Amino acid sequence: MLTGGCLCGRIRYRISGAPIGSTVCHCVDCRRASGAPFVGWVSVPRNAFQLVAGATKTHMSSPGVERAFCADCGTPLTYRHAAFAGEIDVATGTLDRPDDAPPDNHTWTSQKLAWVQLADGLPQYPRALPEP
Ligand SMILES: [Zn+2]
Ligand SMILES: [Zn+2]
């Protein structure tokens, strides 16, 4: 069981079961939406993610892409893509124990900032994860 929430604490969530995967995304949209150079995401089955306190506000950042955040403190919390309706991505940095969900790879490295040097040996994908 993974748990987490936003900075102000009004929103809390829990994740039942094991994540599908974990990535660090270097895309422009994640950068802009978070204000951070790159963003960690833990992918979980949609029905494994449950809000237990508060309610998120959502923003459609591109067609079919919904980003949810705390309207009170601004913390980005989740990402959903219509093409992957059965999954939801949860911002790794909002977990209570982010070390419990380390990344498997880096995605969208074609948009990575030049001064970010990756040295963890994980696979790097220039765009989204290849289809399984
Ligand atoms: Zn908040
Ligand atoms: Zn991204």
From TrEMBL:
GO molecular function: carbon-sulfur lyase activity; metal ion binding
PROSITE patterns in UniProt: CENP_V_GFA
Alphabetical UniProt keywords: Lyase, Metal-binding, Zinc
Boundaries of every CENP-V/GFA domain copy: 2-109
SUPFAM superfamilies on file: Mss4-like
Signal peptide: none
Keyword Metal-binding in annotation: yes
Family label: Belongs to the Gfa family.
Protein name per its UniProtKB record: Uncharacterized conserved protein
Species of provenance: Paraburkholderia lycopersici
